[in-house]
Amino acid sequence: MLTALVNAHVRTPEDEITAATVVLEDSSIVAVGERLPPPAGAKVVDLAGLNLLAGFIDLHVHGGGGFSLMTEDAEEIRSYARWVVSKGITSFLATLAAASRPQMERWLATVSALGEEVDGGAHPLGAHLEGPFLNPKHKGALLPAALRPPDRAEFLGYVRAAGGRLKVIVVAPELPGAAEVIGVAREQGLVVSMGHTDATYEEAREAISHGVTQATHCFNAMRPFHHRDPGCLGAILASPQVTAELIGDGVHVHPGAMALLLRAKGPVRTILVTDGVAPTGLGSGTYSFGGRPVVVKDGVFILPDGTISGSAATMDHMVRNLVELGLVSLQEASRMASLNAATVLGLDRRKGRVAPGFDADLVALDESLEVAMTFVGGQLVYSRPQGQGR
């Protein structure tokens, strides 16, 4: 089936096309051009006044819309996938927080059995393990009892349970056994991220030399920077081969610190992530997360001890936030919310751009950068009801 999206303002990481026509055939983009006539017989969708971007990809998310991705119920993940397209997300990694080994293996088996296609929803691209090989000193909202030293056999059990769908693992590289797990993870083709870590500058640099290429929610739950003790954060900022996750809600990380990160890494090496949890999008109130009560306060979830427990902001909010703060352009924010994640996962030849040959996963934003439409695999899966928006 042919679909022609006309009068769009296409924004890619490299350029913009005004009054663009984007032609979709089945699940792929087949043509992009300024004022390109729609093919005969194509369904025409008018995007006048809308910015058309590559669909957002969330590498680090635990849930939202009342749905948890840490579940043994595949339908709950599908429900999340159908909800999150309203926020411009077209692909995501189900991020699993540290728990007991049997529980994590059951969660992984659920993600493995799910596959990448959800009718009317975003693509579940696989799993991201946030633990259990993390440092309790920087546990954040994770349960200390669920954290344990890196263990090769345990890690390989997770690989087997995931059936080829495990894509990213977070490790605190200073822990005993971490170097072996990092090496085995790289052999298995995984992305290894450092996070929830108290690593020194030297320990972090050594881990980077052994294959760590990513930093988990940079600044959060890691050893802070000091000019005589730069720590892992100093190593992350100084290492061009490391890509940094950023929770861009303006609460997890101060705008000044976000500016510093962007100055050091640039929009090419910074990935926007939500770190969203199940109650995201449900509004103010008290909820349960990991068996503990959390309260929405100032746009984040707060545990009773004051610890931030994930983000209440969605990816579209973060894109708007960074642009409105003047930290990046919309094109740069689009790269940080899409192409950079695709690159990390080795999918940058088919996801993350509005270009021929790429997947027809797209998001249309209005002038206020609110989501107006979302396409997944060439299908319109979300259209904002008339009268909604800012």
Task: Please name the defining characteristics of this protein.
single chain, 9 helices, 390 residues, 30% strand, Urease, subunit C, domain 1, 2 domains, alpha/beta, TIM Barrel, eight-stranded parallel beta sheet
What does this structure look like?
With 390 residues, the protein is of the alpha/beta class. The protein folds into two domains: 81 residues, Urease, subunit C, domain 1, CATH 2.30.40.10; 290 residues, TIM Barrel (Alpha-Beta Barrel). Helices cover 25% and strands 30% of the residues. It contains nine helices and 22 strands. Strands 1, 2, 3, 4, 5, 20, 21 and 22 form an eight-stranded mixed beta sheet that branches. Helix 5 crosses helix 6. The mean pLDDT is 95.
- How many distinct domains? 2
| Low-pLDDT residue spans | none
How does the major sheet shape up?
8 strands, mixed
The CATH first-level class of the largest domain comes to Alpha Beta
The CATH architecture classification of the largest domain is Alpha-Beta Barrel
Per CATH, what is the topology of the largest domain? TIM Barrel
Averaged pLDDT: 95
What would you report as the Rg, rounded to the nearest angstrom? Answer: 20 Å
- Number of DSSP E strands: 22
Rounded to the nearest angstrom, the distance between the terminal CA atoms is 34 Å
DSSP summary: helix tally: 9
Strand content: 25-35%
Structural class: alpha/beta
Going by CATH, the homologous superfamily of the largest domain would be Metal-dependent hydrolases
Overall, the morphology is globular
Q: Which assembly state applies to the chains in this document?
A: single chain
User: In percent, how helical is the residue content?
Assistant: 25-40%
